[in-house]
Amino acid sequence: MNIEWLYTPCQSLDTAAHSAAQARQMQLTKPPGALGELENLATRLAAMQGTERPAVDAVWITVFAGDHGVAAEGVSAFPQSVTGEMVRNFARGGAAISVLARALGADLEVINLGTVNDPYDAANVTHLRLGLGTANFIVEAAMTPAQCAVALRAGRDSAARAKQAGAQLYVGGEMGIGNSTAAAALACALLNETPQHLAGPGTGLDRAGVGHKIKVIQRALTLHADHLADPSEALRRLGGFEIAALAGAYLACAKTGLPILVDGFISSAAALAAERLCPGTAQWFMYAHSSAEPGHTRILTALDAKPLLNLGMRLGEGSGAAMAVPLLRLACALHNGMATFAEAAVSTKC
Amino acid sequence: MNIEWLYTPCQSLDTAAHSAAQARQMQLTKPPGALGELENLATRLAAMQGTERPAVDAVWITVFAGDHGVAAEGVSAFPQSVTGEMVRNFARGGAAISVLARALGADLEVINLGTVNDPYDAANVTHLRLGLGTANFIVEAAMTPAQCAVALRAGRDSAARAKQAGAQLYVGGEMGIGNSTAAAALACALLNETPQHLAGPGTGLDRAGVGHKIKVIQRALTLHADHLADPSEALRRLGGFEIAALAGAYLACAKTGLPILVDGFISSAAALAAERLCPGTAQWFMYAHSSAEPGHTRILTALDAKPLLNLGMRLGEGSGAAMAVPLLRLACALHNGMATFAEAAVSTKC
Lengths: 350, 350
Description:
The structure is a homodimer. By secondary structure, chain A is of the alpha/beta class. Chain A has helices at about 15-25, 35-50, 80-90, 95-105, 145-165, 180-190, 195-200, 205-225, 230-240, 240-255, 265-275, 295-300, 320-335, 340-345; strands at about 60-65, 105-115, 125, 170-175, 260, 285. The radius of gyration of chain A is 20 Å and the shape is globular. Chains A and B meet through helix 3, helix 4 and helix 13 of A and helix 3, helix 4 and helix 13 of B.
């Protein structure tokens, strides 16, 4: 299975639509710039959607789940069975992202790429059965080339379904016990950073637990050191099924012109991998929030990202991105619905 | 007209509902604390609404407008006629807050307390005709005792209408050319600060303009110095019709048990005045955003406030608060709608 599609160019932004939207912002009945980031959001969405009047009514959310071999090293505060249990919870509507998707009227799909226990009876879930989680990356590469290619393609297929359904915004989420370890390891490789700067408590490790997690990541970085200059190898060796799928989804969105709202730490690591695989992908990113996971800031800085929210969230699932969807929607409502100075007969600046 | 009602006690928060909501948060299928500030929002709303399961479906927004005599000193980037022109724009649905209220399904009322030009033909606006704006506070007190009392009562009446309509959240907004000068002067008096720390560009002053604004505020603080220890006198002498109305609304909400979402710089100055007039009012405050107006941080710090958003907004009208309403709604949706570990059969922490 080849991964050549990763390297096809991204769609360009529509600079004419961007300029038209900027000109419109200057005519709306408010002091210029008074809506702050909301003005940037509206004009960036205009550039991505190729229209002076953007909209994010139709939101598509895919949550990718997968287990991690490195969980055997005791790097998570929760048992590995939780991944599969949460897949069921997503499907039954009880998880945070399920509640948020309902509240937002967003389409939600759940893709289980491979978990250690068996949630395969869960309805409304696509089960891809790539394996009982990834391999333990302190022993060998997390994924075989074939597994990684299928995971990337699962992301691409999800973006294609979103596009097909008329989505105006793509949100990716993830679930996988151990995936903050994988994301930190991957980010270390891509940023040439030490694990001390990227590893954090995840779902709730104490200080000693974080220290152990750092050592585990260091062992992995040492083992795979000769292969990490290539971002696709870094992703395959240190990532996970759901991280590769997210990267694939982001790449496909950028290639087909679908705006992306990036969630938190894990998603940002996948976003960074996507940008390294195909530079220009990041033009299609908006960043929802700054996670409580301390390493997130490093990744955001590397992506020159300015996240919209900073609420101390650290849940994943796409939940931080979902929280930011109303900001995008209201930014569009203001952009499209406010009167101009001329329309409202309001005086302009002295 | 007396203002004795300002000093009647605030309603107490429901500590039992707060504890029940906190206990519920600990059982939801997420690592404890992983929803960050959203958990605090839900449990605080529970305490305010006296129920384990809070809701903010019904949102009430009142925008208070009024002109300022101090505008004669050239302290704004926009001409004074804009206040009345914007009252019409609110009524016709073209202003930012009009668009946001529609998008949120919130009730919006507009109270014009007194403007220099005449927007009195504007439909859907209550006109209280307190005067052609306040007096210039570098010459005399901004308001007579009667004007200030009527403005405070206008706020109280607005809160009463909100309560009567079944509102679950109160948002106050304001419009008044010159009101960032009044709010800064009032905050200086209440915080015993210098205008250098509270005055900013408002709707768009340049550096020289801000310097002039600081001198104007200093003249007012000197003129009224002997009367500023009493917060009701500080409000009357340095505030404005719409600022007094906001303070009155906040006080009435706290006395009748209606949660308040505070907007930006002007609203926060009114909120600070309300808390000084009747300590305990601030228990009923949530803070929507951190404004780009530099003095806002000082006021927020004095109120021990942790605003939800920081989007570089500086528009007023209640627009920043409106932007934060979906965060409150989604916090409630998560709190009420997520499955517990037991319901979802998900394993808890190792």
